């Protein structure tokens, strides 16, 4: 019986991986004035090689940003959000140049990055005064 439970646990861990990262912000005096926790849950569907990553941070409880890295078409899905307030979305390059600016008005949005060169981009989601930032990797 223990062997069966052990094998079941191994199979589940092969399909799901959860990772969490917490970062803190400090004022000029060294006092902690903020904490941001991001959790990542990756899963591979049986019979598929596609990884779906579900992120959780202090602003959004369930957000999917996929595929990341992307070859150009990036999808953003926000589950369990009622959209009573608008969500602004922006993509910046590492120089700080604004490349894309839009509003999310439904639970999913598609962003086309195919015309941009390969590299790292910053996705910024803003809900009211709260800001959530994500790194996006564009490849061929």
From TrEMBL:
Keyword Signal part of the UniProt annotation: yes
Keywords: Signal
Signal keyword on record: yes
Domain Secretion system C-terminal sorting stretches: 65-132
Leader peptide range in chain numbering: 1-18
UniProt xrefs under InterPro entries: Secre_tail
A Pfam entry, by short name: Por_Secre_tail
Name of protein: Por secretion system C-terminal sorting domain-containing protein
